[in-house]
Write a structure and sequence with these properties.
With about 325 residues, the protein is of the alpha/beta class. The termini are far apart. It has twelve helices and twelve strands. β4, α3 and β5 (about 105-110) form a beta-alpha-beta unit. The radius of gyration is 21 Å and the shape is globular.
Length: about 325
């Protein structure tokens, strides 16, 4: 699309937390390509704090996925009133495809591997290779399609100096003197064993004298409690359910590194340049692993992974990962 100029642009990427973070380099590239355009973004309610301080974006359009049946007509009417020149759908599912079509934009761009029939709602389709490709790379193919450059590291996540003191203010811990532990996950199949996390928390405190801070949502409090109960030495700091999204981002930015399952906070850490040790099971790290070259992915060598199943009675991909293997990666991270 060489030479095309757009003045009013909409990005459709409502969820999830990690995927929205992965799409931020696309926004950066788009702003550089269209410096005077008015750029809006459709995002799910609750994720808007990711964009605090992001001057590259002009407007957020909040979609409430839990109340959408009551608000959908007002939402679509609002989209049409804005008279977008072009819509770029990075979600590429049925609902986002419908949003793109009903926006009234004459140019609607989507990815070629879109699911649920979403590609039928686009006027332009960006070809995606059949080989596994990280989400960041997929979205940047759309940037290339718009001649918008290929800077894949500008994630736009910004933490103020005032925010950086959150660890000390909330939990009495100093910057770089603690490790983040994220044992939750939206799918039960993504969760490594709580007993494994308890072992590494004990190891960190016994061998290195490093405190662990357990993060997660309120719904994941039972997982955190199970880890604390299984810990024999360590008394981790419980931040589960106690931070806002902005506070969580700031807390991660202060940490030495993060040990996590395949979850959104892991992607926040990667975007902030914080080293990540991540445990993968049913999902593919080539597509949704931490982006960059200073991170460590741990996964079991089992023939059924990645299976992308949200429910599994076996879960050998998690059960076959030994605490000793994670500890070896921790030693390497601390000693380098």
């Amino acid at each position: 699309m060489n030479g095309e100029q757009y003045n009013n642009i909409l990005i459709v990427k409502p969820s999830s937390l990690g995927d929205v973070v992965h799409a931020m380099p696309f926004l950066s590239a788009l702003r550089k390509r269209f410096p005077d355009a008015y750029i809006s973004w459709v995002v799910n309610k609750g994720l808007e704090p990711l964009f605090d301080g992001v001057s590259e974006l002009n407007d957020l359009i909040i979609f409430d996925r839990y109340e959408w049946r009551d608000t959908i007509f007002h939402f679509i009417r609002d989209l049409r009133k804005r008279r977008f020149d072009v819509v770029i759908d990075l979600q590429c599912l049925l609902r986002s495809g419908i949003f793109s079509f009903l926006s009234g934009a004459s140019v609607r761009i989507g990815l070629g591997d879109g699911r649920e029939g979403s590609r039928f709602f686009y006027t332009h389709i960006v070809d995606i290779p059949d080989t596994p490709m990280h989400s960041v790379e997929r979205y940047m193919l759309c940037a290339e399609y718009l001649d918008a450059g290929t800077d894949k590291r500008d994630f736009l996540l910004r933490v103020t100096e005032e925010e950086k003191a959150v660890g000390r203010k909330l939990f009495g811990i100093k910057e770089k003197e603690f490790v983040i532990v994220n044992p939750g996950g939206r799918w039960t199949t993504k969760r490594w064993l709580p007993s494994g996390f308890a072992s590494i928390i004990d190891y960190l405190e016994r061998v290195y004298g490093i405190r662990s801070v357990i993060i997660g949502t309120e719904e994941e409090m039972s997982i955190a409690d199970e880890i604390v109960s299984a810990s024999k030495i360590a008394i981790p700091i419980m931040a589960t359910g106690k931070t806002s999204l902005r506070e969580l981002i700031a807390l991660i930015s202060e940490s030495s590194f993060i040990i996590a399952n395949d979850t959104g906070p892991m992607h926040i850490a990667s975007a902030l340049g914080i080293p990540v040790i991540v445990i993968f099971g049913p999902t593919n790290p080539l597509k949704t692993g931490p982006y960059g070259d200073k991170h460590t992915v741990i996964k079991a060598d089992v023939e059924c992974a990645p299976c992308f199943k949200k429910h599994c009675e076996d879960m050998r991909c998690m059960k076959y990962i030994a605490s000793e293997e994670v500890i070896r990666k921790i030693d390497t991270q601390i000693q380098t």
